[in-house]
Amino acid sequence: MQCQWCHNPESWSSYVEHGLRKGRCIGCGQCAEVCPQQAISLVPLWPKGVPSGEILPRGSRGEKRRFLTEIVENQPITDMNKCNLCGQCVEACIAGAREIIGQEMTVSEVMAEVEQDIIFYDQSGGGVTFSGGEPLMQPEFLLALLNQCQAQQIHTAVDTSCYAEPKIVEMVSKRTDLFLCDLKHMDNEIHERFTGVGNNLILDNIRRLSEASKEIVIRIPVVPGFNDEKANIEATGKFTASLQSVSRIDILPFNRGGKEKSARLTTESKLMQVETPGEEKMNSIAKNLSKYGFEVKIGG
After folding, report:
1. pLDDT by residue (tens digit) across 35-47?
2. What is the pLDDT of residues 215-252, one digit of tens each?
3. 3-state SS of the chain: helix, strand, coil percent to 5?
4. Which of 97, 198, 213, 274 is least enclosed, having the fewest CB within 10 Å?
5. Would you tell me the crossing angle of helices 279-290 and 230-241 to the nearest 10 degrees?
6. For domain 17-101, which CATH number applies: 3.40.50.720, 3.30.70.3270, 3.40.50.2300, 1.10.540.10?
7. How far apart are alpha carbons 190 and 221 in whole angstroms?
8. What is the pTM of this model?
């Protein structure tokens, strides 16, 4: 799925990516100098409204130099066909503008992180939540981790859109204690327009989890102009009320952070930009959903 309001667009790709925080770049050129693949080049970034042939003002040579320093920057351009993600440009960047997004890890490496907090799981009654993006994008890896957690009696939760083949959801459900299931919109056509896929498979998978008596928390990202109208909220409430094993509904106000994160990526992601819904709107939605007999929590 590629939701137009996504908070984690860096999770769309299953591969490691290169990222650039353009606002931090000072145009020093160190990245281009150290790149062993010669994948980075610097191009002048001219100010708007100033023709390149008329950029030098009249006056002394010193004034020209000062003027150029103030208005001309070097913009690094990376040829991803040459880049092998070695990370040398990241290490050389004194401004912290460059980054490698994503990390390949083994099951044992992830479990080493998980096991550090076992004492806190025992004290709090909590456990491990597998999220993303979408954890069902990597079902074999997820199943291996769930097996390891199950062997150590660590409580597990999977935060998912439920957009996956039913057999994958079934296998995962046998090893998972709690499902955090996203419900984005009840209308199939609108759902597809804003996420890239319809919702029929999602709703069917949630029904199957309920029929298998798996504990479910329904999570609704509240996105103004997409799913916050009363008709959709009520349709969501009615669907949720038809399920037997839902313990709670979480409503999550739209977060604008995804737009800034998407600007760092080499892959293009066109995200919508709307205002975060206010407290009054969120309370109204919570009140509407609570009519269906559920505890409703604002925020996740």
Report:
1. 999 998 887 665 5
2. 999 999 999 989 999 999 999 999 999 999 998 999 99
3. 40, 20, 45
4. 213
5. 40
6. 3.30.70.3270
7. 15
8. 0.80
